[in-house]
Design a protein that fits this description.
Strand 1 and strand 2 form a beta hairpin. The protein has one domain: HIT-like (HIT family, subunit A, 2-Layer Sandwich), CATH 3.30.428.10. It is built from 2 helices and 5 strands. By secondary structure, the protein is an alpha+beta fold. It has a 5-stranded antiparallel β-sheet, with helices on one face. 20% of the residues lie in helices and 22% in strands. Bound molecules: guanosine-5'-monophosphate and zinc ion.
């Protein structure tokens, strides 16, 4: 996708603080963190949002959760806990139209997740 900011991060056309990368997945620190640990995990394949997932994407979504497990261990938040969030669509507050999983942690998060 030509003008997708996350595709540009994948291609290293714009800089980011990458914490994990393999042939299918990249994870980098959010530019505007809302928690001490705020990392975005994305598939290298451009998938616009959760509702655009196809049957063939089931494997990559499973792998993303395995990568999330590795990252939370790496970041030292595995035991204390963390939150994984996927925003979808306008009401869901999705700003970047490339599927991404927010990992939030490093502090006790409030229970309020909407509002
Ligand atoms: P959304 O609201 O779409 O679920 O989340 C998009 C996230 O991407 C936001 O938390 C925002 O701070 C982050 N973000 C937007 N542009 C960039 C960027 O260029 N670099 C990084 N590292 N994060 C970005
Ligand atoms: Zn993209």
């Amino acid at each position: 996708m030509e003008d997708c900011i996350f595709c540009k991060i994948i291609k290293k056309e714009i800089p980011s603080n990458i914490v994990y990368e393999d042939s299918e997945i990249v994870a980098f620190r959010d530019i505007n963190p809302v928690a001490p640990v705020h990392i975005l995990v994305i598939p290298k394949k451009h998938i616009s949002s959760l509702i655009d997932l196809k049957a063939e994407d089931e494997i990559i979504i499973g792998k993303i959760y395995t990568v999330i497990n590795k990252i939370v261990e790496q970041e030292g938040i595995k035991e204390k806990g963390f939150r994984v969030v996927v925003n979808c669509g306008e009401d869901g507050g999705q700003e970047v139209k490339h599927l991404h999983f927010h990992i939030l942690g490093g502090k006790k998060l409030g229970l309020k997740i909407c509002g």
